[in-house]
Amino acid sequence: MPRSTSQRKSISPTLVWDKGTELIGLNLSVQPHQDMVVPSHYTTELHSWFLDQVRRTNFKLSSHLHDEQSEKPFTISCLDGLVDSQGRSLRFAADRLYTWTITALTQPVVEWMRQWLLSPPTDIHLRSGSLRIVGWEFAHPPTTYDGLLQIPPPQSPTITLSFLTPTSFRRKGNHLPLPLPTNLFQSYLRRWNNFSQEEVDQDEFLDWIDECVIILRHQIQSAKVMAGKSGAVTGFTGSVQLGLASKADRDPELVELWLALGQLAPYCGTGHKTTFGLGQTRLGWLAELTPNSLSLQDLLAQRIAELTEQFIAQRKRTGGDRATQVAETWATILARREMGESLQAIAADLEMPYETVKTYAKLARRMAKS
Predict the structure, then answer these.
(1) pTM of the model
(2) Cα–Cα distances in Å, from 69 out to 82, 104, 117?
(3) CA 238 to chain centroid
(4) What is the spatial distance between Cα 165 and Cα 151, in angstroms, rounded to a whole number?
(5) What backbone torsions phi and psi does residue 100 show, to the nearest 5 degrees?
(6) How far apart (Å, rounded) are the C-alpha atoms in residues 99 and 48?
(7) Which residues 6+ apart lie within 8 Å of 80 measured at CB?
């Protein structure tokens, strides 16, 4: 929940952790310089600002974070706090504090954060406006992958996870918005195998998950949101509690790994597009997690889906990935334009030439009216 200006407390930006740290989460308390109206997919602007901070101080690491690797060694969140809708956009109030979470999943990124905080930025400059950074604190304590394995298991092991922002998995080219145990732990194991010093046999572990991990209870709901440049994502929010079948005791090492991956979840997030605010995960049961921004994002995503279907149906050549990709691009540009975004902002966000976006917007509008 955001705090009013009078309630905020001073937090030192000089946070300390051991040099061998591999995992860390930071909370930035931020406050708009003035009331801000932002598009519903504003996390793309936060993503760009963070990568630019890396580029300014460590070009080698920046190149690594920009490459096409399947797993990114960091996550970012949305701005956590009450958000007011203003027409088809979101409004952040200048008299409120909001929380932004950044996590690092490898020692090089953690070390960069250490150097970054020696002379920390005072403001976050986005296309939509600027935010003052008024405090820093740990979101998740500094640790290592081996440290997660060393946490003593409880007498009756369970893992309870809450998904604060829409969470989704990729399956056969589509989105799978369900917290199935195999999908959850395949997601965490991918990060573990990519970033830790010890790789685990994926097939053996996931077979064990399928046999031994059960859902004790859940409370979830679905949502369709915008994330990054690739359009809409169907995901879920809510909470799930997982337990073990009795036969799980036969493999204590796998139980230990299962518990460690549960502890990893808040650092690495769940599913895909965690660098655009999706899949934000916390330990414990947090019911009724429905951010105010979801209705606007859902509206935009539904409009894009509606236009995409129309454009595909209207094109003479309806088959193939290329036709679908063009239809989705035209639909995204037109839907965002209908919501009041400027063509310049859309072009910058999609990393496309302005004249191309302008032409696509005209063609899409003409086709939508036909």
Answers:
(1) 0.78
(2) 34, 16, 26
(3) 15
(4) 27
(5) -120, 130
(6) 18
(7) 2, 98, 99, 100, 101, 164
Q: Digits of tens for pLDDT over the chain (370 positions)?
A: 444 443 334 445 568 899 999 999 999 999 999 999 888 788 989 999 999 999 999 999 998 888 766 789 999 999 987 666 655 678 899 999 999 999 999 999 999 999 999 999 999 999 889 999 999 999 999 999 999 999 888 878 999 999 999 999 987 777 788 999 999 999 999 999 999 988 899 999 999 999 999 999 999 998 877 665 556 778 999 999 999 998 998 899 999 999 999 999 999 999 988 999 999 999 999 865 444 444 566 667 767 777 887 888 776 555 566 777 888 888 888 888 877 778 887 887 787 898 998 898 888 888 887 7
Reported as type and span, the H/E element at residue 136 is: strand 129-143
Angle at 7 between CA 5 and CA 10, to 5 degrees: 85
Three-state SS at 132: strand
Taking the C-alpha atoms of residue 312 and residue 102, their distance in angstroms, rounded to an integer, is 38
